[in-house]
Design a protein that fits this description.
Blueprint (H helix, E strand, L loop, with lengths): L6 H18 L15 H18 L7 E5 L7 H4 L5 E6 L2 H14 L4 E5 L11 E7 L7 H14 E14 L5 E4 L8 E6 H8 L4 E7 L12 H6 L4 H29 L13 E9 L3 H5 L9 E7 L6 H14 L4 E8 L5 H10 L4 E6 L5 H11 L4 E6 L6 H9 L6 E8 L4 H18 L9 E4 H7 L8 H12 L4 E7 L13 H13 L8
Helix pairs in contact: 2-8, 14-17
């Protein structure tokens, strides 16, 4: 297929989909047609699961106006229309739109407007509460993708939802796909899964990102394609058809289980790799109150809080490394430096660093108040849509922050556990003893040994009651889990501190933690 941005590319798209529609005719239900595999049973199951996934995310009312870009033969428009005020269905193929019109007439649906246009040529006018872009932007250039994202953000009402579904790569490498039949032009590009979050995130808030369906496939099936081939016999087809309602219902649980297994170095090898999968994204347009909450909030993607107590030997290098990584990742950021009542030159060095960059702010605490107070002060001061933190000793590499941010939509919180860390025996003894007491007292294991990332919204809603001990992190996670929010763990490697000595496991810190733990009831109250 020619470049999709050119008139020739648009013409090729029309030729491809019109030809495909005419060739298939009534052989398959075109309103549910997909090109994942030739197995109709697999396509039908995928459609059921994907549609259930999308409808779990949508907020539809009788007053909702929906724009379905590249909606084809009405796969979603026909189901949504009876629930809303109006649906505008846009597609490049006249033949597919004719199928959608026919089904709409048969069902007595009259509130769908059909527009024959490519999304590149579509005139974005009016306002919508929901915009659907499902399997379309893979045919666009990067420049066209950015223009479509900006146009969608312009016509989406404040508080409105944009749902995007696209094939993406999981290894950060873009791939191209060409049609098998040289007589029929077909070309698509599979972008890294972080791309869409970044492009649409310039104007909209990313609230959710997951694979559309679970890929919980044992290695002996050889991956998705081999699994699809295994369904070609009559018994497998019957089994899939019979099990569709059950598989659709349990897919959210399967998807959550798969994510946990794939995140584990020990068990991930049991699953077949999925180099290309379909990701589902949910973006929301900020409301006026959210936009005016902070003059920088709509533009600032990430706040990184750096906490320090007597770290004059490390602070300059740690901040420098962090700045370089954030700039290379093209993330709009700020760095919040929290000095926890240092008795050396840490605070003066922080202020010197901040004078050279508007992206860096300093929060001084006097006197020394402990880890919990330092984290709380930094989190409260942060203005970014997402917040993470690192200690100023350099043990957590800045690349960890980048990884957590790129995976930010996978859960309400991404927390880290150390894969390797060389601690002396007495530190391990104290840590294990504290963790055992936490589990005994709260019923939950405090696995997080490192930093974590979360949305500023989550902090505002679920921040624990004031606490200057190390229990603040455990309490925050406890509040999230108790209210049904999701948390996933990411294993990281810990490097040696850059200089100086640890200030964490001293008598005062241990006493503060024990005192906070003993004062807790079964749960933590929000502030």
């Amino acid at each position: 297929m020619n470049n999709p941005q050119t008139p020739e590319g648009v013409a090729d798209s029309k030729v491809f989909w019109n030809d495909l529609t005419e060739r298939l005719g009534n052989a398959v239900p075109l309103e549910n047609y997909g090109t994942l595999t030739d197995s109709r049973a697999v396509v039908a199951l995928r459609d059921d699961i994907e549609q259930a996934h999308v409808f779990r995310l949508l907020r539809l009312t009788p007053a909702t106006c929906v724009l379905d870009l590249g909606g084809g033969a009405g796969r979603f428009a026909l189901r949504i229309a009876p629930k809303v005020a109006r649906v505008t269905l846009v597609d490049v193929s006249e033949a597919l739109l004719d199928v959608a019109r026919s089904h709409a007439r048969a069902a007595g649906i009259s509130n769908i407007t059909f527009i024959n246009s490519s999304i590149q040529e579509f005139r974005f006018e009016g306002f919508y509460d929901v915009i659907l872009i499902l399997g379309v932007t893979a045919y666009l250039t990067d420049e066209q993708l950015s223009a479509i994202a900006e146009s969608c953000a312009r016509v989406l009402r404040p508080g409105g939802q944009l749902i995007l579904k696209e094939p993406v790569t999981t290894d950060g490498v873009a791939r191209e796909q060409f049609g098998k039949d040289p007589r029929i032009p077909y070309y698509a590009r599979f972008r890294p899964r972080e791309t869409y979050a970044r492009v649409f995130g310039r104007w909209l808030s990313l609230d959710y990102q997951r694979p559309t369906v679970a890929h919980f496939i044992p290695w002996f099936l050889g991956g998705t394609e081999s699994a699809a081939q295994a369904t070609q016999n009559a018994f497998a087809q019957w089994l899939l058809k019979t099990a569709r309602p059950i598989l659709t219902r349990i897919d959210p649980w399967m998807l959550a289980m798969e994510r946990r297994v794939r995140a584990s170095p020990r068990f991930s090898a049991l699953l077949a790799p999925v180099p290309v999968l379909q990701d589902l994204y949910l973006f929301t347009k900020p409301t006026p109150s959210e936009c005016t909450e902070s003059s920088d909030a709509s533009l600032l993607e990430l706040s990184v809080v750096v906490i320090a107590y007597n770290e004059e030997l490390c602070i300059v290098r740690v901040v420098g490394e962090l700045e370089s990584c954030l700039a290379a990742a093209a993330i709009s950021y700020e760095i919040v430096l929290v000095d926890d009542g240092s008795s050396d030159n840490t605070l003066s060095m922080m202020r010197r660093i901040a004078r050279r960059s508007e992206r860096i702010r300093v929060v001084p605490l006097v006197p020394n108040r402990g880890i919990g107070a330092a984290l709380r002060a930094g989190f409260d001061a942060a203005k970014g849509n997402y917040i993470s933190w690192i200690p100023a000793d350099g043990q957590i590499p800045p690349e960890v922050v980048i990884e957590l941010f790129q995976r930010r939509a996978e859960a309400s919180m991404l927390t880290t556990v150390y894969h390797t860390r060389q601690d002396p025996w007495f530190r391990k003894l104290i840590s294990n003893s504290l963790n055992s007491m936490i589990k005994l007292r709260t019923g939950r294991t405090a696995k997080s040994g490192g930093n974590y990332l979360f949305s500023r919204r989550a902090w505002k809603v679920y921040a624990p009651a004031p606490d200057d001990s190390m229990m603040i992190s455990t309490a925050f996670r406890h509040n999230l889990l108790r209210h049904g929010e999701s948390i996933i763990e990411v294993e990281i490697d810990c490097r040696a501190r850059l200089a100086g000595s640890s200030k964490v496991l001293n008598f005062r810190t241990i006493w503060r933690t024990l005192d906070a733990l003993l004062r807790k009831s079964d749960g933590w109250s929000r502030r």
